[in-house]
Amino acid sequence: MKTIMKKSGDQETKWYVVDAEGKRLGRVAEKVARVLRGKNKPEFLYHQDTGDYVIILNAAKADLSGNKRNAKFYYRHSGYPGGLTMESYDKMVQRKPTFPMEHAIKGMLPKGPLGRELFRHVKVYAGADHPHTAQKPETLEI
Q1: Strands (E), the chain
Q2: φ and ψ at 65, to 5 degrees?
Q3: Mean pLDDT across the chain
Q4: Which residues, other chains included, contact 47 with Cβ-Cβ below 8 Å and sequence gap of 6+?
Q5: Quaternary structure per UniProt (predicted)?
Q6: What is the domain partition of the chain in residue ranges?
Q7: Cβ–Cβ < 8 Å for 8, 131
């Protein structure tokens, strides 16, 4: 068997736009991670970037099921004893409206250099406006 290697000039990349208003956070993140990775294409290669660019609008208005608005926490640690800080989803959305969506997508991408490169292809915005109209993004239904 031969390992398939696509050249960067051979790949076509598209731009998609997703409106996350009223949609479940995890379902949007899963669909976006799949498109970023390129798993929706027949020429998918697990070791190369074959994915597309995705713009997410209204990320702050994404929905969660059940009582997760108050029960879901984001943790960070300063590295010092007793330095654990936790913040609920509601407070995090008020402070950083795009963080929960970015955090969910980043967790679904591969870890390492490929995952970091793929994460640069997602643009998350809290509102309904974006500066990427020149790329002529297509609507991605979820």
Answers
A1: 15-19, 53-57, 73-77, 84-88, 122-124, 138-139
A2: -90, 155
A3: 94
A4: 114
A5: Part of the 50S ribosomal subunit.
A6: 15-139
A7: no
The token pair that represents 30 in the structure block: 């899963």
Check pLDDT > 90 for residue 11.
no
Hunting for tokens 């398939």 — which residue is that?
Answer: 4
pLDDT digits (tens, 9 = 90+) for 92-104: 999 999 999 999 9
**Among 93, 85, 104, 101, CA closest to 69:** 93
Give the architecture (CATH level 2) of 15-139: Alpha-Beta Complex (3.90)
Cα distances (Å, whole numbers) of residue 137 to 1, 51, 107, 125 = 37, 14, 24, 15
Burial class (CB in 10 A: 0-12, 13-18, 19+), 81: exposed
pLDDT over 70 percentage in the chain: 99
